[in-house]
Write a structure and sequence with these properties.
There is one protein chain. This protein has an 8-stranded mixed sheet, with helices on one face. Strand 7 and strand 8 form a beta hairpin. It is built from 6 helices and 8 strands. It is an alpha+beta fold and about 200 residues long. The longest helix is centred in the middle third of the chain and has 14 residues. Bound molecules: coenzyme A. Coenzyme A (COA) binds next to helix 2, strand 5, helix 5 and helix 6.
């Protein structure tokens, strides 16, 4: 079976008090700080990054994502809207693998520890989902289904998904392998363009 993703044009989205803007090289210090957080490393950093020397992690992480739009992933820095386009990065949100499966994408996110607990993850996910599921005639990606997964041991991510309209569809056994090699059962959540 052949698979192909969609090359995407970088853009900025506006949410409830936040901006989702394309990542930039100037985000490296904020990413370095975020990747010192054990929760981000465990649930969202990726094994290659977690195994890299701390001083190298942000460069590896950012280098793998700066060109991601051209290969079918929308990768955003989450910032405070009141700080404008140059606001410091408070979190990350991506719609990955756009159209690898027709009309679908996979969502992922993290928020720096200092910016948690004020609705950033759920608002950013809602904003990006609305855009991705909107018709192309209205500036969206025109997708039908967005999915995400999180380890059962990460209940905060479950609540973020539910708040942003991603219904729980089931449990995937041993789906996620954390950087220490430990396997975790994971929830599969999804949001559709038209609720069923
Ligand atoms: C999980 C994470 C993204 C939450 O970010 P956040 O901006 O603090 O989340 P929000 O403020 O939008 O919270 C949304 C809801 O989740 C709840 N929540 C957030 N973190 C929680 C936690 N650790 N435990 C239980 N509930 C939590 C909030 O209370 C809120 O629910 P409420 O409105 O009913 O009170 C953040 O803690 C994080 O980045 N964790 C590490 C990386 C990660 O797990 N990424 C997801 C990988 S699947």
């Amino acid at each position: 079976m052949t698979t192909s993703t969609t090359a995407l044009t970088p853009l900025t989205l506006t949410g409830d008090g936040l901006l989702l803007r394309p990542l930039s090289l100037t985000d490296e210090p904020a990413i370095a700080e975020a990747l010192r957080d054990p929760e981000i490393l465990r649930w969202a950093g990726g094994r290659t990054v977690a195994e890299a020397p701390e001083a190298e992690r942000a460069r590896f992480w950012l280098g793998a994502r700066l060109m991601a739009w051209s290969t079918g992933s929308a990768v955003f820095a989450i910032t405070d809207a009141t700080r404008g386009a140059d606001g410091v990065m408070l979190g990350f949100l991506a719609a990955r693998e756009v159209n690898r499966l027709p009309d679908q994408a996979v969502m992922t996110y993290w928020i720096t520890p200092a910016a948690r607990g004020r609705g950033l993850a759920s608002n950013a996910l809602e904003t990006a989902a609305h855009w991705a599921l909107s018709p192309t005639s209205k500036g969206g990606l025109g997708l039908h289904r967005l999915s995400l997964d999180h380890a059962l041991a990460n209940p905060g991510s479950c609540r973020v998904a539910e708040k942003a309209g991603f219904a729980l569809e089931g449990t995937m056994r041993d789906f996620y392998v954390d950087p220490s090699g430990l396997r975790h059962d994971s929830h599969l959540h999804a949001r559709l363009a038209r609720p069923h």
